[in-house]
Amino acid sequence: MKTKIIQITAGRGPAECCWVVAQVLKLFLEEIKNSGFTYSILQRDTGSENGTVQSVTIQLKGKEIDSFLTSWLGTIQWIGTSTFRKHHKRKNWFIGMYEVKQTQLIALKEKDISFQAMRSSGPGGQNVNKVNSAVRATYNPTGDQVVVMDSRSQHQNKKIAIERLKEKVHQSQLDNIKKSLSDQWENHLGVQRGNPIRTFKGTDFKKIYKKQSYASDRQKLKKDLRNDLKY
Fold this sequence. Notes:
Layout: E1 2-9, H1 15-34, E2 38-46, E3 53-62, H2 65-69, E4 74-79, E5 92-99, E6 113-118, E7 134-139, E8 144-148, H3 154-183, H4 185-189, E9 198-201, E10 206-207, H5 215-229
Parallel strand pairs: 4-9
Antiparallel strand pairs: 1-3, 1-5, 2-3, 4-5, 6-7, 7-8, 9-10
């Protein structure tokens, strides 16, 4: 099962582009569900207007996820009148959908956790327990640590430490992803306005299907062939 992290962004576009991100997000998640993939939203930055999204980062899991994404990744265009400025002349709005490649979430493995018994202590250094019931847990691949002294039972503190360490490592990974997103600011700045992968129109957000026509290409080939036969 593959895992992908996708970002949908309005770049530095205005509120209209943030509205388009919100609409595309709805359609994208609906297609994900219908295709049998699972997802989780890692980060969502709201836009300046109600119901708008500046950018959203999504983790996808499933087989054949690459094939699914080929019809989504790239520039997405919406053709329509501004939902916030009715008399605005602009009719074409663009957003981007990109794959985040630098950082992937990994599952924490308990075998990679090391534990150290410690003396529990209370406020002012007062001993809560004369035995080493506190636990320091370290996730060796990343160096993340937690110290737990909630219980007088070392075994119970160890269980609590594993759960807290999982949360901490997960948050550290999310922080790394956020950093990689900020490092990809060119994605926000470089939403290309040409050759959109998908185009929608109207407030009902209907998809525009491009009809492939090869008639003109065939005519050109025939003409070139006739010219070649003359020589």
